[in-house]
Amino acid sequence: MVQPRSQPSSATATSAAPAVKTLSELRASGHQFRSVKDEVRQNLLAHLRAGEDPFPGILGFDDTVRPHLERALIAGHDLILLGERGQGKTRLIRTLTGLLDEWSPVVTGCEINDHPYAPVCVRCQRLAAELGEELPVSWHRRDQRYGEKLATPDTSVGDLIGDIDPVKVAEGRTLGDPETIHYGLVPRTNRGVFCLNELPDLAERIQVSLLNVLEERDIAVRGYALRLPLDIVLVASANPEDYTNRGRIITPLKDRFGAEIRTHYPLSLDDELAVVRQESEIAWGGENTDAVLPRHLVEVIARFTRLVRTSPAVDARSGVSARFAIAAAEAVVAAAVRRAAITGEDQAVARICDLPTIVSTLRGKVEFEVSEEGREQEVLEHLLRRATADTFRAHLGSADLSGLVTRFAEGGSVESSDLLPAAELLRRIGEVPGLAKIMERLDGDGGESFGQAAAALEFALEGLYLMRRLSKDAVDGGAIYRA
């Protein structure tokens, strides 16, 4: 349910390529030829029988999208994933490479990855006739058998299917020679998985070029009498509003796809949390492992995203992408890292004071109703306060916070800001009875870290303000809490 940053780990080879180098050696090895769809089907069934996850990194689709996808792949269907932006359609498609064999033999040098047992292009058929059992064999990893194209209005038939290569003609070949063809992306992904993103954006006359690929499994290039049977799994993605706003999928093409599968945003808060946690860990791995995004702030961001998604002020047709929550989490962690760099803190820990800045930076990711023009900032700030209040009630609503409230009983105040170090914030608040209990309720570690203790206390202060047990004066980059 999240948009991909790179090829999924499932598409990475884990062993060396076989040592087989010729057709005779391939036959002697006992290798059996399988079509790509049969390969995907058998490997998927093996995953299911072993209780393994065939689509790693995909969250929130277990009981909804995945059963439909598994049935479509077992049936050998080409398919369309239909859903609003940011629902993880492309990421889900890319995991399909994990269902291919780890290594697959090809005729060495073939542009369309012909299998040595059954070459289909003119070049490989000629080589097979000339060399016989000495036909050279190479091996492709599963991630080399994946192709992807973002459909744009300027995409041509030549981009997808192929065209005449003027360089080959200039080399002396005649125009009638099939070897003068420069193959497009689809035939170059022969014996693999090809993804066409945002299919409705493809001009209707270009969509027609895919009809034979899906039904007759072959291609034709210009006026050549060429039948090139393709062995391919074709998967497309589309947004529902694209059918009417920017373009449409022509009816004959929709009819040729075996399955149309609807995706969705996370249905539960737990799924939303899992998505944000997974993606923020990816973004802040490696050299940034010391940066901490406390769990209660992840929950605030997840609740905020869900409130924005269901708000009547937001255009529901365009959706609120999972990238919204991911970008928010990354921005909050970045604010903590910036504070640590400026103040010299040993550990960067995000706090509630880092949240308000995300409103202005994320506003462009949301399409508002026309009636809300000019109120975008106000709407998002209100929803962020609601998300914070809901998270506070869920974790600290029944907690004894009298020790913290007493700190303000005699007119005291505490000022916090986005550049105030955690140790200084703790000094200003002073000793708080029950701090360990507060952190335990927030899934903390009992106050081992100054940064996490400060994050817990600042969240409690903000929650008390939202519950009207404290007042708050906003100042540049922070706030002053008082009785």
What's the topology here?
Layout: H1 23-28, H2 36-50, H3 65-75, E1 79-82, H4 89-94, E2 103-107, H5 122-131, E3 137-141, E4 146-150, H6 157-160, E5 162-164, H7 166-170, E6 181-183, H8 185-188, E7 192-197, H9 204-207, H10 211-214, E8 232-238, H11 251-256, E9 259-262, H12 269-283, H13 295-310, H14 322-343, H15 357-362, H16 376-396, H17 402-406, E10 413-417, H18 422-429, H19 435-441, H20 450-466, E11 471-475, E12 478-482
Report the CATH architecture of the largest domain: 3-Layer(aba) Sandwich
- Catalogue the unreliable spans: 1-13
Beta-strand content estimate: 5-15%
Helices and strands: which structural class? alpha/beta
Number of helices: 20
Fraction of helical residues: 25-40%
Strand order of the largest sheet: 4-7-8-1-9
Approximate shape: elongated
Largest sheet: 5 strands, parallel
CATH homologous superfamily descriptor of the largest domain = P-loop containing nucleotide triphosphate hydrolases
Arithmetic mean pLDDT = 87
Counting structural domains, the number is 2
* Radius of gyration using CA atoms only: 28 Å
According to DSSP, the number of beta strands is 12
- Per the CATH scheme, the topology name of the largest domain is Rossmann fold
Q: Could you tell me how far the N terminus lies from the C terminus, measured between alpha carbons in angstroms?
A: 43 Å
- The CATH C-level name of the largest domain is Alpha Beta
